[in-house]
Write a structure and sequence with these properties.
CATH class: Mainly Beta
Number of domains: 1
Strand order of the largest sheet: 2-1-3-4
CATH topology: Immunoglobulin-like
Helix content: 10-25%
Number of helices: 4
Mean pLDDT: 89
Number of strands: 11
Radius of gyration: 18 Å
Low-confidence stretches: 1-20, 23-32
CATH architecture: Sandwich
Length: 263
């Protein structure tokens, strides 16, 4: 039976899961490192919560791809992220990119913004959520986000993959408050998947900026440090890092940056 466009799950049905945070001790501070200058423009972090098991999601996947391509063409600071959730895996197809942690991330947005948990959902700068296939809503939210200068600046000094399945990152952040969250997302720029079951069975789906790993740190006052992010064994060779700062209470995103991951 086909499911409605807005696929809601109650928070009670999903169950509560705490957000995993790396303790401050896992990274070292560099008090003498020069901090990045204050940003002069706005940023837009676009998170799409999607699933290969959802028949309503491919149009949203296409919209995210279009937004990312347009931002790249126009040199706009738009950071697109595709988070694959796991709550539709029972429908006959297990999304290979889904993680319970991404479902939990979406649940936290539902708590902060209201509106329930559903796919496809798009969230811009942690402040506004809407049906992920609505182009008008997405473009209006991007214009609004880009019009307001970002509070934080992030510099990624290095991002490199080692031979042990990790991405090692060195960063510097300015303009944040102590205790703010620094999210480090390792993404694959494009993935093509022939889906063999479930609502999208028989289709070939193309995804843009698929999040393969996410690590969240609490920033100290200096805002400098390093971190190690474990990536899946099946991750491709072309990887990128998107780093963004987030308020731990409102979840508003206040700064972002990206870098290629060196091999």
């Amino acid at each position: 039976m086909p499911l409605n466009l807005r696929k809601y799950l109650s928070l009670a049905a999903l169950g509560a899961m705490p957000v995993g945070l790396a303790p401050l001790g896992v990274f070292s501070s560099f008090a003498t490192a020069a901090l990045p200058p204050a940003p002069a423009t706005g940023i837009a972090v676009v998170e799409l919560f999607t699933s290969e098991g959802c028949s309503s999601c491919p149009p949203a996947d296409k919209l995210l791809s279009d937004l990312a391509a347009e931002a790249e063409r126009d040199a706009k600071p738009v950071y697109a992220l595709s988070f694959h959730v796991d709550y539709w895996n029972y429908l006959g197809w297990g999304d290979p990119f889904s993680q319970a942690a991404f479902t939990d991330r979406q649940r936290r947005y539902a708590d902060a913004l209201g509106g329930g948990v559903y796919t496809p959902e798009m969230v811009v700068n942690g402040a506004e959520g809407f049906v992920g296939s609505k182009s008008g809503s997405a473009r209006a939210a991007l214009r609004k986000a880009l019009a307001r200068p970002a509070d934080c600046a992030i510099r990624i000094d290095s991002a490199s993959a080692d031979a042990h399945g990790n991405v090692n990152v060195t960063y510097a952040v300015s303009g944040h408050r102590t205790g703010a969250l620094l999210n480090l997302a390792v993404i694959e720029p494009e993935k093509t998947v022939p889906v063999r079951g479930g609502e999208n069975g028989g289709r070939i789906l193309i995804h843009r900026n698929v999040v393969r790993a996410l690590r969240t740190l609490r920033l100290d006052a200096p805002g400098t440090g390093n971190s190690r992010i474990s990536i899946p064994a099946d991750a491709g060779r072309e990887l990128r890092l998107i780093a963004f700062v987030q308020d731990p209470e409102s979840l508003a995103i206040t700064g972002a940056a990206r870098a290629d991951v060196r091999r």
